[in-house]
Amino acid sequence: MRIENEIKLGFKDVMFRPKRSTLKSRSQVNLERTFKFMHSNNEWTGVPIMAANMDTVGTFEMALKLAEKKIFTAVHKHYSFEEWNDFLDKASGDIENYIAISTGTGENDLDRITKVIDAHPKLKFICIDVANGYSEHFVAFVKSTRQRFPDKVILAGNVVTGEMVEELLLAGADIIKVGIGPGSVCTTRVKTGVGYPQLSAIIECADAAHGLGGQIISDGGCAIPGDVAKAFGAGADFVMLGGMLAGHDESGGEMIEEDGKKYKQFYGMSSATAMEKHVGGVANYRASEGKTVKVAYKGAVENTVQDILGGVRSTCTYVGAQQLKELTKRTTFIRVAEQENRVYTQ
Ligand code: 5GP
């Protein structure tokens, strides 16, 4: 046994130190970024926020709405071939720039996405997502996906440490998804005791990825717009959101009415609810590692997006970053033992 004594930090442990700035208004801040990818030789421009590949978040409806704002959706993996055909036949324009097709590493997974991509070669992004990105099997799957699709942008995860970011990039991934345990409906830390505070994970993984010319996605743990800004400030190239985008018209999940109030169901992809829905129950050798909750119905996702983008723009003006790209260079975090004043919070 060994203990690392350096305390790792989460979003709640820091705030941005304000800096002198020449920016007069939030409207001067540009939140778009352009990335060139390590293997696939593609270039992408957009607002680097992603809807999570959860069936209550990363839906086709969400993708259509977010693409209007140049925001990305990792579409969940439970759509059928026919549903993909239907969606892509109807969706016009450049939707392929703002969506990824997701996959696990199961036996039929590569065949399933190959069938969709062969029918729709304009699809550019593949998201290979497993709860634990540390297995050799996962690395092998990333390698074979890269061989099969040399010109696609491959997102792969999840991991939280620099050496595994490097291994996955060298295996053929372009962008690494970072986060174990921070998610709003995740119970991995409760069930397993495994995890890594998200801010430190971002800082360490971004450093490893950028050294090789790759990118990272901070995945999970953002509960408020300030957390999204902190993730970018720490060095995340993309920030993936689940809970913050749940509960909207465009989100999946059943609508629930109780005492005249509206809610939408939201659940982790490893929750008993998801496993019952998609694989006929929780297998007898495992525990569910996700929660099922109801979140207050929030209406159109557009309003939430404006709130998030407005918050990040404001962060940029506080530290003098005219472009989102400059935010991390202009970030000094101060460690804190307090966050907001909650005297009027219910
Ligand atoms: P959030 O933005 O809600 O804090 O986090 C979203 C992320 O939580 C997802 O992108 C995914 O990485 C993670 N996640 C989703 N469902 C589950 C689950 O059932 N268990 C665990 N451990 N993580 C989950």
Oligomer: single chain
Largest sheet: 8 strands, parallel, barrel
The number of E-state strands comes to 14
- Listing every helix as H and every strand as E from the N terminus to the C terminus, the arrangement reads EEEHEHEHEHEHEHHEHEEEHEHHE
Catalogue the unreliable spans: none
Strand order of the largest sheet: 3-4-5-6-7-8-9-10
- In round numbers, the mean pLDDT is 96
Q: Which molecules are bound in this entry?
A: guanosine-5'-monophosphate
Tell me, briefly, the overall form: globular
Task: Label the structural class.
Answer: alpha/beta
Q: What is the alpha-carbon Rg in Å? A: 19 Å
Total count of helical runs of at least 4 residues = 11
Helix content: 25-40%
Binned strand content: 15-25%
Instruction: Determine the N-to-C terminus distance.
Output: 43 Å
Features:
binds guanosine-5'-monophosphate, alpha/beta, 11 helices, 20% strand, 14 strands, 33% helix, 8-stranded parallel beta barrel, 346 residues
